[in-house]
Please model this.
Amino acid sequence: VNSLRAFVRDRRPGTTDPRRLGVALGRLGIAVVTVAVGTRGAPTVEGAVWLPWPAAGSDGNRGDLQPLRAALQPIVAARYPAHVLLAPSAYRMTLLDAPPGPEREHARSIRWSLAPYLSEPVDQMAIAVFPMAGPTQAGGARRRLAAISIRKTDLQRQRDRLLNLGFNLQSIGIPPLALRNISIHAVPAGVNNALLSISPDLVLFSVHCGDHLVLSRQWSARGASGRTRVVEDGSLAVELARSLDYCADRGFPVERLLTFAAPLDRDNAAQLREPGAAATVPAPEPLPLVGIPGIHWQTPAPSLPGQSEVTTGCLHALGAALRGTKASATGMEGTIA
Model:
């Protein structure tokens, strides 16, 4: 059992209902979004909730899950398929050159190429692989792959906890692909775009070309004031400019920059607009959680004052629920379990 997919096996009866759940696991809590996906019309958000984790015990493990299980019961009782996102701190994402051979063999053959980058023996890791947009699609040479790795014991623990909470687990994915799913709805086809989201512990930045993921970066260091360090020290614009330059050099200049829960302060915005800061720097566009084009909301989004993890978690959970709702030319939906 080496792949992420092998850990996603919930054989209890499911449902033929068009609704599905998107679930995002955060440091402070869990976000769950219910989406109805029909063969016609836009996806409809019918429910969104954020619930805190129980306090950790003296051994560092989660406390009693029974109150959380009871709170989730009305949501999970219908057995809607659940598409879950790992917390960014739970996995490692490594970019590697594609090995020789067919794509279906990449996950197996890349394990040994990945071994030098891991702190654990490769046979103790579950691994998933998906292609990144790169020079092959822009007229250049060798394709790049993203390898997602997580300790099997950690993944098994996550799976057991999700099943214990009552979820009909169908897939386990990562936030960058959830943001890709959001961008497919938020931006017209054929427009290279970037999405920047900020929560209390994390800056997540991903660049998309249609249903291809071009680049994914994240920063998690926190500054003295509690804000993420790259925001506090004014270096966010520098990091974004470097990323935009990288994408332009690979043939994917970013045409739209969407920001979620991430207002750029005056210093960062000024740096980002400096001549020569990046090859192409579009003006940042705020992305509202309720108001993404082509997605209807029938329920208010949960919000807690001063707690941006709530809205960011709901955005990521929405992206998880949108998995496969638009045609994918890359087959990426089938490679992340």
Observations:
- Confidence is low (pLDDT under 50) at residues 7-13, 274-279, 327-337.
- The first strand starts at residue 19 and ends at 25.
